[in-house]
Amino acid sequence: MPLHYLTLPVTPFQQNCSLLWCDETRDAALIDPGGELPKLLSAVKAQDLSLKAIWLTHAHIDHAGGAGQLAREQGLPIIGPHPGDQFWIDGLAKQSQMFGFPAAESFTPTRWLADGDTVEIGRQTLSVRHCPGHTPGHVVFHSAAIQRAFVGDVLFAGSIGRTDFPGGDHATLIRSITERLWPMGDETVFIPGHGPESSFGQERRSNPYVRGT
Ligand SMILES: [Zn+2]
Ligand SMILES: [Zn+2]
């Protein structure tokens, strides 16, 4: 496999931060470092990786809460999310207070993402799909090479993302799933922001929110 990853649940919300690396170069990215930075950095060290970037699916506190501090301390670029999540980034301090998280450092993404962009780690390239609905600026990272998608809070095993937050929209979320995730193929395994992995085919067969779509 040209790419490897480890899933590291962080924060009281057990958010699935993914440590993703290129097998050839051992360059790594952390997807959604929501918190518990010492735990994430020791995983990087244990795998003997060179951490190059932070990638964000969206700017909810459990996904983006550790990004500012990690970027500052390690000198890393923050890639993503889509500019639709600017208001969630602006509201990180308020989100920390609301959920009793440690105060999140604010940040400005080094690079905003748009639908159809690509991101690179080592010699591997992943494609970016804009998947609004849970948040307006939510993005998903897809590797065709290993048939994996890092989908944040768009889709879960047996469920879908909440749409009752500001900027959320149910119909938009369903369109993101059916028009932007399903074309990645039924065999594609996805790593959700919370809970266990599943495949798109499995969800199309059995997920009550998107069954038969
Ligand atoms: Zn979220
Ligand atoms: Zn989440």
TrEMBL record:
Pfam families, per database record: Lactamase_B
Matching InterPro entries: MBL_Glyoxalase_II (IPR051453), Metallo-B-lactamas (IPR001279), RibonucZ/Hydroxyglut_hydro (IPR036866)
Residue ranges constituting the Metallo-beta-lactamase domain according to the UniProt record: 14-194
UniProt keyword terms in alphabetical order: Hydrolase, Metal-binding, Zinc
Segments forming a coiled coil: none
SMART domains reported in the protein's UniProt record: Lactamase_B
Domain of life: Bacteria
Annotated CDD domains: YcbL-like_MBL-fold (cd07737)
Cofactor(s) listed: Zn(2+)
A Gene Ontology molecular function term of the record: hydrolase activity
UniProt-annotated stretches for the region Disordered: 193-213
PANTHER family tied to this protein: HYDROXYACYLGLUTATHIONE HYDROLASE GLOC (PTHR46233)
Protein name: Glyoxylase-like metal-dependent hydrolase (Beta-lactamase superfamily II)
